């Protein structure tokens, strides 16, 4: 059994990791670590885990963590994994980081967008961007995974085939995204207060969200040329889910059937990306609690635009599920191990 450690298990992505790993056939949740609840049981924080056999929350000590785990998931706020990862990696322990600390190739860009001290260049260069569907070969050989952000996951899976095709003007991308509140984590703040956000919807960080450079970096890398993306996130009063509605200006006459065929071929054999039938309008509810990303394609011949709809569960495909998918590839396990849950409906 692979010995897994989790830092940040008292947070939303961390506890979601436990939901998938507890039933995983090749893994033992060996150690849980906490910066605020050392010595307590996870069930004291999350009563829904009462009577589930899990280790007590232990102190965060990178040397110790490196010695007692084969892989450590870091489900922690920005800045923490840049500090913890080097010691773990030097021990030969694999690291899957759910934060933004290793996603951007340039430390300077990270510092500009996250306002935190970046990880050293040698570690940034080692990190593999864990978008499993597109970087699977590199993920399988990786020691350090930068697990993609939630909005970038839905956006990149939705746009990469078109960006690679060259059919769309590379500077015309407009990405309108909507997220449930769990995307902001478990921390309490006015911005996620029920009476302030219920019955309301608003955009935030317009022209300034930290996922913009991540989307442009990875879309550009996959397409082999620079891409410019106008990204606007919105907060929606629901718990889980992201809907991305993305627009691109077509540079040649392309039919809806051409785009459909492009995507069906790109995602053939990819178990977690479901290209929906032509004309579909996927809902976040249809992927709730699952590792699926559902994509639908539309072409507006009047405006010459292609419109891509992409939905994920932010805590699963946008965080913990994708992290487990990456772990499966890193350890040569079936990609779907532990992840075959059908979405929760209604
Ligand atoms: N929520 C989501 O949908 C997504 C989140 N992410 C990213 O994943 C990471 C975790 O997010 P999420 O689960 O939402 O966050 P939460 O705020 O829900 O949980 C984060 C956890 O990190 C731990 N933590 C806080 N400060 C420190 C510290 N200084 N050192 C060590 N541990 C610390 C806390 O646990 P304790 O007090 O026990 O130490 C806390 O429970 C973030 O970087 C986030 O951006 C990425 C994609 C989607
Ligand atoms: C709804 C909501 O607040 N979502 C968060 C997503 C955070 C996240 O996943 O970002 P990093 O991992 O890149 O820090 C946000 O917009 O900042």
Automatic annotation (TrEMBL):
Catalytic activity: N-acetyl-L-glutamate 5-semialdehyde + phosphate + NADP(+) = N-acetyl-L-glutamyl 5-phosphate + NADPH + H(+)
Active site: 150
A GO cellular-component term linked to this record: cytoplasm
GO biological process, one term: L-arginine biosynthetic process
EC number from the UniProt entry: 1.2.1.38
Pathway participation: Amino-acid biosynthesis; L-arginine biosynthesis; N(2)-acetyl-L-ornithine from L-glutamate: step 3/4
Keywords on record: Amino-acid biosynthesis, Arginine biosynthesis, Cytoplasm, NADP, Oxidoreductase
A GO term, aspect molecular function: N-acetyl-gamma-glutamyl-phosphate reductase activity
Subcellular location: Cytoplasm
Major place of residence: cytoplasm
Domain spans labelled Semialdehyde dehydrogenase NAD-binding: 3-142
Pfam families (UniProt xref): Semialdhyde_dh, Semialdhyde_dhC_1
Function comment: Catalyzes the NADPH-dependent reduction of N-acetyl-5-glutamyl phosphate to yield N-acetyl-L-glutamate 5-semialdehyde.
Family named by the database record: Belongs to the NAGSA dehydrogenase family. Type 1 subfamily.
Protein name, entry field: N-acetyl-gamma-glutamyl-phosphate reductase
Organism of derivation: Brevibacillus composti
Lineage of origin: Bacteria, Bacillati, Bacillota, Bacilli, Bacillales
Gene this chain is encoded by: argC
